[in-house]
Amino acid sequence: MTTNAASPDTTIAIIGGTGKLGAAIGRRLAQAGRKVILGSRAAESAVAKAEELGFGLTGMSNADAAAAGDVLIVTVPFAAQDATLAEIAPFAAGKIVCDTTVPLVPPKVMRVQMPAEGSAAVRAQQILGEGVTVVSGFHNVAAHKLATDDDIGCDVLVFGDDKAARSVIVELADAARLRGLHGGALVNSAAAEALTSVLIFMNKTYKVDGAGIRITGELIPLED
Q: Where does the UniProt annotation place the signal sequence (predicted)?
């Protein structure tokens, strides 16, 4: 896919969509009128979550969701990243896969601990291979806030080596009532992934209910 935005007919599959972040993203996109499938390791769990959330969401297994989706958003913990990506890899060729994984390693989640590849996003690209366009985003938004109808006032930095693919996820972040911003190449994802541990530390130190980020200044996009 090389378009600069997801069309209304684009099917978005949330892999790991019964988790807090996946369900929240799926709900917001469905509210915006997008076609959204929630995926889960167990299809019945995805069906139940979709029925609970409403807004026309459907549920199925991760593999079936990946096969049916045009754009895949992976929302699983770091410990589940390898197995989940391996499961959907046969269905991801030629598609955009947005990986939201943050390399948190319990119990020291307030300490930055990056994988050997440099970032979870680069790791995802290596697992999925060259035939898949990996983009990353949604690292620094609190899932419990995203699950509400409130205006969160949070920016979503989106990273990827393909600008058109980045643009698709930037637009989806906007549709979810956030502000999607281009953050540059996929390797830059390390900055947002690492920042999550900093934000968790700040939540505890300053008693913040889900700290996020907001880029200051007047942002004027460059013309292509």
A: none
What integer pLDDT is reported at residue 2 of this predicted model?
42
Tens digits of residue pLDDT in 121-143: 999 999 999 999 999 999 999 99
The three-class DSSP label of residue 145 is helix
Cα 193–198–201 angle (5° rounding)?
135
Peptide bond between residue 115 and the one before it cis (omega within 30 degrees of 0): no
Residue 155's beta-bridge partner residues? 179
Domains of the chain: residue spans and CATH: 12-206 (3.40.50.720)
Tell me what pLDDT residue 5 has: 62
Distances (CA, A) of 119 to 52, 55, 150: 34, 34, 31
Distance CA 135, CA 159 (A): 6
Alpha helices per DSSP H over 32-74: 43-53, 62-68
Mean pLDDT of the chain: 95
**CA gyration radius, the chain:** 16
- Concatenated DSSP letters for 149-185? SS----EEEEEES-HHHHHHHHHHHHHTTSEEEEEES
Instruction: Check residues 78 and 7 and name the one with the higher pLDDT.
Output: 78
DSSP secondary structure letter of residue 7? -
What is the per-residue pLDDT for 4?
A: 57
Summary count for the chain: helices (H), strands (E): 8, 8
Q: What is the rounded distance in angstroms from the CA atom of residue 167 to the CA atom of residue 92?
A: 19
Closest CA to 119 of 160, 166, 71, 167: 160
